[in-house]
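Pair request: fold both.
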Amino acid sequence: MPLSSPTDAHPETTDVKPHTNAQAIALIERDVADHDTLTLSPSALEAFVAECEAPAPPNPALCALMARS
């Protein structure tokens, strides 16, 4: 007999309504998006892409940091 919900596998588990779970997931996804999304102006995006495509050579501080790793 297939399980219809996670609580069927463990009847002693607190019954969580599916819509409550979906709401919780939506809130978490929104919160993560609020903190993990970076919005750039077109000129800032162009500068970022240019730097990624042709990065500056490492400076002494970066070389020292990487030597410690």
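--- second member of the pair ---
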Amino acid sequence: MQLNGDIALKWPKRREEGREERRNLLVRRVPGISAVIDASLNVPEPHLYDAAALLWTARRVNGRAAIRIPAEGEWDSEGLRTEFVY
């Protein structure tokens, strides 16, 4: 949502409209991100968009433009870190 100027996206990422919405947003906001979202990998397309959004977030955290809550997030049952980034 923050990547989209604090406006919620209209479509779920599993729908074609949602994938197109995310792709357009990422290409517009993250220079060079096409290399990530167009990668030929055996990974579901929505996961590539998630990875691209995480790259954007990581850049913000590294540049101290974002805050991680909690500072040390926990890991869920799927091995994903659970935290909010503001």
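Observation on the second member. The chain is about 40% helix and 15% strand.
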